[in-house]
Design brief:
The protein is α/β, with parallel strands linked by helices and about 240 residues long. It has 8 helices and 11 strands. About 35% of the residues lie in helices and about 25% in strands. Helix 3 links the parallel strand 3 and strand 4. Helix 1 packs parallel to helix 2. The chain is globular, with a radius of gyration of 18 Å.
Length: about 240
Amino acid sequence: MKQQIIFISDLHLSLHKKSIIQKFIGFLDNQAREASAVYILGDLFDSWVGDDDNTPPNKRIKKHLKQLTDSGTKVFLIVGNRDFLLGNKFCQETGIKLLDDFAVIELNGIKTLLTHGDLLCTDDIPYQAFRNKSRTQEWMQNVLSKPLILRLAVARWYRFRSYFHKRKKSQDIMDINQQTVIDVMQKNQCLRLIHGHTHRPAIHNFEIDKQTVQRFVLAEWQKDSTEILYWDAKGHHTKNI
């Protein structure tokens, strides 16, 4: 019986990241098949302009995801700030299940909160304002109604603009707000939090209401570093593939 549960995030798959694509496909065809479940906590793709986009490497990625879910491994996805337009068609084609922005599961008897992580960065007020606007049905339907070639061009421009905007922001503003973390963990009655987004992999131990809690930050996949968080009956460990 498959015992392991795997958590990954921030792969930012795109055509020019060929080495990461190859590693991810190898992961789907090998390590992931030994797990009972795989949780992808956002930014699987560097951008996603709609489920009708089959430009490389999307079609290939969907094929291998479907092969994984057909093998019996459950795959769950929380959308990130780069791929939040992933929808029902993508799920039907891959067999994965979309989760809400905050999802609660149980790991070894402890309620664990899962999220991408961008909602925890509440000090970044301009981003949170854009996020609120861009997650409305009206905004998304307006974008998806545009021709695919236009959506692809706009996505490229947004990535270019985002790169320069990030260079102007302090790292602290783009990191999580500790009080926000405490608030969401209290609201969901969880003693453990797992997220990505900040690209600052670490395990943070702190207290809430005199109880020890943990925050696990997942790593961004890079050419020379593809860290995975594993969980089994004995606990957790990380591994590079």
